[in-house]
Amino acid sequence: MHRMSSTSARAHSSTFSAGSFFGQGRDAKKRVNKLFAIHAGIMFTLGLLSALFPEVLVYLLHHSSDGFHSRHEGGTARVAFVTMRVFGCFLLAQAYLLFVLRGGTDGNMRRAAVQSYFVAFGLTTLALARAQLTEDMPVRLSNWLVILSFFALTMAYAWFSFFERISVYELGR
């Protein structure tokens, strides 16, 4: 039976515990793919809703006191619905991109996607928080839940952007 020296045993146990805690290696690679999968699922759902039923999301974001507006109205409501539909198509395309990236093996491409989403969600969080705090907007729980959701995505992508090595991105599924 092979016996380790006390120094190498300590190094092995500390490496193992640090790796287990931070999810190094294969577990971290699975977490990147899980983050991509969850994010793609959310974007697919919101994209489909935005493209097919823009009035629902416009209502949820705007909280109009006069209820739902018809997507067939003219003026500002029509512009809002068209904008929401275009945004929905963009979300659907990004969901597809993330789904494909889950199987990719190019570490630089996967890392660039993670860093891009970190920046995008960080800026979105700041923009939504600024709108909530500085503009004449009613304080609603749903608004803060949206802001907290974007903040959570920012933190998830920040973890992989700043604390994981490039090797985490080099494995597909």
TrEMBL record:
This is Uncharacterized protein. It comes from Nannochloropsis gaditana. The keyword Transmembrane helix applies. The chain crosses the membrane at residues 36-61, 81-101, 113-132, 144-163. It comes from the Eukaryota. Keywords: Membrane, Transmembrane, Transmembrane helix.
